[in-house]
């Protein structure tokens, strides 16, 4: 049993408190900062978030700044706090104080959640293009908008502002241009038409930068390179578009030539920063040249430049040159130029000391391979494989297998290559590779005899890889007859050779060999008895492995009872395999990610249409199924939509079907639910429900029209609850006025364990009903179904308002319209204690105003109900009559339904 | 096999990590939403991978579907993850410019400056890079922004005696 007071030990207390005293701003800041420090040391921080949020509203810059820092470091974009944070941000954005606006924009850009996009995606474009916005704010606004657009492109409205954003490319302030270019690039990817004008602006901006002297741009010159970051971004933006119109194109070509020329000039500084910045621009320019793929002259120049880098003393440059050349190899204009560097690249395989560089060299060899150099490249790769790092062996094996198949003129070369692969790196030869060689041998009868002879010879090595036994077993089983005429490879010798490996092999290989044996029975009647003896031996017929035993029994039986004709039919040679995409290619794609390989393959296919039919083009759908869909996973933590709130549409009525035990029906409210509900009107924490099995505890907090409720489900038994499903049920009316969001909880609750569920609450408009929490689960064999009213009541969105007596009465009079006042006279249900009454009025959420009512025995309160749509001022007066043990409660608000509901709620409390 | 971190739209930088030669994380900045668990896993793997590399090796490596660009400055490793299509060299210079900014602000910065003034390191980074993109490359402009904030801090709050004192 969990005693009720254990509730205080529930986790995730979201507030600090020292005793009951709230902390001042300075201390809050100090502690929040300490928490941050602790977090940065690598510890988990799961409290203090609320305090950080409070700091956001501070007027002190440092407090605000630390609050924002905490939020951007520690708050994930799916945090429940976002809506509270948004309020603070909204205020800062409206403050017109550029420092505060900057902080707020940084926070949005750092967190960038969908809720933030909802709140600010409309506002930020206005800030961005407003004439009086400071440059630094514009920069932040541009990148902030970019982040929101990435999170939720649907929420960023395109409009007039887009054309003004494009013109930021002409801005005087290079920092603004830098930030804006990133934004425009991303927007242009999705809306190329709308941002088409950016091309000519980007070209002229770029042209001004590359032709400027190294001092022209002052602080935007970096180690004698003018605005390298901006140049890279502009070149990147141009890669969103095809080559521009002739007029602009001429100017762009000049720019690109200037960049290529500068690469040949002697360096202006010996610092590596100078060469890095310069080459960063150069590599981006080459990317653009490759992207356009239309200027043979530029492509060849780019290739020559990269060729120089291949032998540069900087490892970084060699790496990048190899990488960049891979894409150049796919262009018809530069493919031949790339091929001239084959010696340098194969040399890199042998001499580079860094595996990541060698990996790039392998990639480039793969990319530059065509029929003319396939034999050389495959040979180089095979010889590298002997010493290659374990981490890249499998990939090399796949590449060799693909190239050997694709560019094989002579299939005996192909067979030799694959057998070499198995010999050198058998452990890294995946199933796909050896399946494929068998498919090819079966489909091509010109190579079958050679294959049989070669595997037979290879199997004679004293230690051969199990993969070779598999390939050998399969091929000899099919085509062993083609070499049986040679006395050196007579049927019996073939069989004995295979059987000598049998005992060293794993179960699947042995199973394959048994099939080979039965095929031998068909191919070579003269070894039938030998094989039957083997099958009959105890080690086969009584093998502990079911599969092997079954094969032995069945094959033995088949060989005894079947006639030669039947045997020949059953054990016929395998029919050719249907041509399909190479399974190896699919595997390589899977390994490398679909985009990289596919691009290369497509380019290769275009270039070499005459070659081997090659792997068939993978239709988009096929490649999508063979590789994990990019949108499917995102680490499983992307934007999982919040669990739908509310019942399935059919069960609109709550209390239907009392007798049903079926899981879909909602239980009637638990006994005592109403009483418990009333107890929560004036407090936020406590036990909402408890029976023999389950305890439900609540902790909640509210701020203005928003709130968060933690629901704790405690399993009081020692047995697991299964299919544990809490559901929040709101009527349609309620759902329109009160928005609840939550995520599903783990369906299993261990004995003695507690699970927590967080409900985010937003009051859209005033409401009367309360949501129902329905919990269904299985305990032992029985189905449990509990419903309780969830105490989210209108008064939770009260903000107390202090006011003087005079103000109070003035407002009281203003609300004298009969619909605005609701009065209730009722009998006291509890002892009429003044202090308790005061506490209840404060707990109800309104301010308790002293010395307002001329009669000191009366209680007067005031507050504002916050909803998303409006704020409603509320005044209340409670007049106790001790003698009669009665109260008279009067509520005056600007809205009749609010007066009504508050009066009902509060009347229940005394 | 790893799950892929994929983005429908091009994104310059995915995250930046600063860690010491002993593998202690000194600063982390994430430009993609990831769970704490995933962040820890990535950090652990990357720190191991990078620390295992020898000094003369190249500054770039492929990791999952990303490219890692890193550089060591004294006892600290600066490590950025960028997307496949991104420019490695310019990222290397992003790191360098950030180091220059720290250096200028702290006056020959060392690891301890970043430990005890981590908030400044973050503020400077936010002025320089926002949402994974370069916001302002001018050293003057970035430092001006930070100095203005420092002035605000002093004028508003005399009793605030410096963060490091409080933390220690």
Task: State the gist of this model.
The complex is a heterodimer of chains A (910) and B (168). With 910 residues, chain A is α+β, with helices and mostly antiparallel strands. Helices cover 51% and strands 12% of the residues of chain A.
What does this entry look like structurally?
Chain A: Adaptor protein complex 2 (AP-2) is a heterotetramer composed of two large adaptins (alpha-type subunit AP2A1 or AP2A2 and beta-type subunit AP2B1), a medium adaptin (mu-type subunit AP2M1) and a small adaptin (sigma-type subunit AP2S1). Chain A: This is AP-2 complex subunit alpha. Chain A: One of its GO terms (molecular function) is protein kinase binding. The complex is a heterodimer of chains A (910) and B (168). Chain A is an alpha+beta fold and 910 residues long. Helices cover 51% and strands 12% of the residues of chain A. In chain A, helix 22 packs parallel to helix 24 and helix 23 (431-443) packs parallel to helix 25 (466-479). Chain A starts with 24 loop residues before the first helix and ends with a helix. Residues 1-15, 594-600, 602-611 and 613-664 of chain A have low confidence and may be disordered. Chain B has 168 residues and is α+β, with helices and mostly antiparallel strands. Chain B has six helices and seven strands, in the order E-E-H-E-E-E-H-H-H-E-E-H-H. In chain B, strand 1 and strand 2 (25-30) form a beta hairpin.
**Arrangement of strands in the largest sheet of chain B:** 2-1-5-4-3
* Gap between N and C termini of chain A: 31 Å
How many distinct helices of chain A? 39
Helix count of chain B equals 6
State the helicity of chain A in percent bands.
Answer: 40-55%
**Main β-sheet description of chain B:** 5 strands, antiparallel
């Amino acid at each position: 049993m969990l005693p009720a007071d254990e509730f205080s030990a529930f986790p995730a207390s979201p507030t600090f408190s020292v005793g009951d005293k709230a902390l001042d701003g300075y201390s809050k800041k100090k502690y929040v900062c300490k928490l941050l420090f602790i977090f940065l040391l690598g510890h988990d921080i799961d409290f203090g978030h609320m305090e950080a949020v409070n700091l956001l509203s501070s007027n002190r810059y440092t407090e605000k700044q630390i609050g924002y820092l905490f939020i951007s470091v520690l708050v994930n974009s799916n945090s429940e706090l976002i809506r509270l944070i948004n309020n603070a941000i909204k205020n800062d954005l409206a403050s017109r104080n550029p420092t505060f606006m900057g902080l707020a924009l940084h926070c949005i850009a750092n967190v960038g959640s969908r809720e933030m996009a909802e709140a600010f995606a409309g506002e930020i474009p206005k800030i961005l293009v407003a004439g009086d916005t400071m440059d630094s704010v514009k920069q932040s606004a541009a990148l902030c908008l970019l982040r929101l657009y990435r999170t939720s492109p649907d929420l960023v409205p395109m409009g007039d502002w887009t054309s003004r954003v494009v013109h930021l490319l002409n801005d005087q302030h290079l920092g603004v241009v830098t930030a804006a270019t990133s934004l425009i690039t991303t927007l242009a990817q999705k809306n190329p038409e709308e941002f088409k004008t950016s091309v000519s602006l980007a070209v002229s901006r770029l042209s001004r930068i590359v032709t400027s002297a190294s001092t022209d741009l002052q602080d935007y010159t970096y180690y004698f390179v003018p605005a390298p970051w901006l140049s890279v971004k502009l070149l990147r933006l141009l890669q969103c578009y095809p080559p521009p119109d002739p007029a602009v194109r001429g100017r762009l070509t000049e720019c690109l030539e200037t960049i290529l020329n500068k690469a040949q000039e002697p360096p202006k500084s010996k610092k590596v920063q100078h060469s890095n910045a310069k080459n960063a621009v150069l590599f981006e320019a080459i990317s653009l040249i490759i992207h356009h793929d239309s200027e043979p002259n530029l492509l060849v120049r780019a290739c020559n430049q990269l060729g120089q880098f291949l032998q540069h003393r900087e490892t970084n440059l060699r790496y990048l040159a190899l990488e960049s050349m891979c894409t150049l190899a796919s262009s018809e204009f530069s493919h031949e130029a790339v091929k001239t560097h084959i010696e340098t690249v194969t040399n890199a395989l042998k001499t580079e000391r860094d595996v990541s560089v060698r990996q790039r060299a392998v990639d480039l060899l793969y990319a530059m391979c065509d029929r003319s150099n396939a034999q050389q490249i495959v040979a180089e790769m095979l010889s590298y494989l002997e010493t290659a790092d374990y981490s890249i062996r499998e990939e090399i094996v796949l590449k060799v297998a693909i190239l050997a198949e694709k560019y094989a003129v002579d299939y005996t070369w192909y067979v030799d290559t694959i057998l070499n692969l198995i010999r050198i790196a058998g452990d890294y030869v995946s199933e796909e590779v050896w399946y494929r060689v068998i498919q090819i041998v079966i489909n091509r009868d010109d190579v079958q005899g050679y294959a049989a002879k070669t595997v037979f010879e290879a199997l004679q090595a004293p230690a051969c890889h199990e993969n070779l036994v598999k390939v050998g077993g399969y091929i000899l089983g099919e085509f062993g007859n083609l070499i049986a005429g040679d006395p050196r490879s007579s049927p019996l010798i073939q069989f004995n050779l295979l059987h000598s490996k049998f005992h060293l092999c794993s179960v699947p290989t042995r199973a394959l060999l048994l099939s080979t044996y039965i095929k031998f029975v068909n191919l070579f009647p003269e070894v039938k008895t030998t094989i039957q003896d083997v099958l009959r031996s105890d080690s086969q017929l009584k093998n502990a492995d079911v599969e092997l035993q079954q094969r032995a029994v069945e094959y033995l039986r088949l060989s005894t009872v079947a006639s030669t004709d039947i045997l020949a039919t059953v054990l016929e040679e395998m029919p050719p395999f249907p041509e399909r995409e190479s399974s190896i290619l699919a595997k390589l794609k899977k390994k490398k990610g679909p985009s990289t390989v596919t691009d290369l393959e497509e380019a290769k296919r275009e270039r070499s249409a005459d070659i081997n039919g090659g792997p068939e083009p993978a239709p988009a759908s096929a490649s999508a199924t063979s590789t994990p869909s990019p949108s499917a996973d995102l680490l499983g933590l992307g934007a999982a939509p919040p669990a739908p709130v509310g019942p399935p549409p059919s069960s609109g009525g709550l209390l239907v079907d009392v007798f049903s035990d079926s899981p879909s029906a909602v239980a009637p409210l638990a006994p005592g639910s109403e009483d418990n509900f009333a107890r929560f009107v004036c407090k936020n924490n406590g036990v909402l429900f408890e029976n023999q099995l389950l305890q439900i505890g609540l902790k909640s907090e509210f701020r203005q029209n928003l709130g968060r409720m933690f629901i704790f489900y405690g399993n009081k038994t020692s047995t697991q609850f299964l299919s544990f499903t809490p559901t929040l049920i709101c009527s349609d009316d309620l759902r329109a006025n009160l928005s609840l969001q939550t995520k599903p909880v783990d369906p299993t609750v261990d004995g003695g364990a507690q699970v927590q569920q967080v409900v985010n609450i937003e009051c859209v408009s005033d409401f009367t009903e309360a949501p129902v929490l329905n919990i269904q689960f299985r305990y032992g064999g029985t189905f449990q179904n509990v419903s309780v009213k969830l105490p989210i009541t209108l008064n939770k969105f009260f903000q107390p308002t202090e006011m003087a007596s005079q103000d109070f009465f003035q407002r009281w009079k203003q609300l004298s319209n009969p619909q605005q006042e609701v009065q209730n006279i009722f009998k006291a249900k509890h002892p009429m204690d003044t202090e308790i009454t005061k506490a209840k009025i404060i707990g109800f959420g309104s301010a308790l105003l002293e010395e307002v009512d001329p009669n000191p025995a009366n209680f007067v309160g005031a507050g504002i109900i916050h909803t998303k749509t409006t704020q409603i001022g509320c005044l209340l007066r409670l007049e106790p009559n001790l003698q009669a043990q009665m109260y008279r409660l009067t509520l005056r608000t600007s809205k009749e339904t609010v007066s009504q509901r508050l009066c009902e709620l509060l009347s229940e409390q005394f | 096999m790893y799950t892929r971190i994929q983005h429908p739209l091009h994104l310059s930088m995915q995250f930046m990590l600063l860690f010491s030669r002993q593998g202690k994380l000194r600063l982390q900045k994430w430009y993609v939403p990831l769970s704490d668990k995933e962040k820890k896993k990535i950090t652990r793997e990357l720190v191991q991978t990078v620390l295992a590399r020898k000094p003369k090796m190249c500054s770039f490596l492929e990791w999952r579907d990303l490219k890692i660009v890193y550089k060591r400055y004294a006892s600290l490793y600066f490590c950025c993850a960028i997307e496949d299509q991104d420019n490695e060299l310019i990222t290397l210079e992003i790191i360098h410019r950030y180091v220059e900014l720290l250096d200028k602000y702290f006056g020959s910065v060392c690891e301890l400056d970043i430990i005890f003034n981590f908030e400044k390191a973050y503020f400077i980074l936010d002025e320089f890079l926002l949402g994974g993109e370069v916001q302002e490359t001018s050293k003057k402009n970035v430092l001006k922004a930070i100095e203005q904030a420092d002035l605000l801090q002093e004028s508003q709050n005399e009793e605030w005696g410096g963060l490091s004192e409080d933390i220690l």
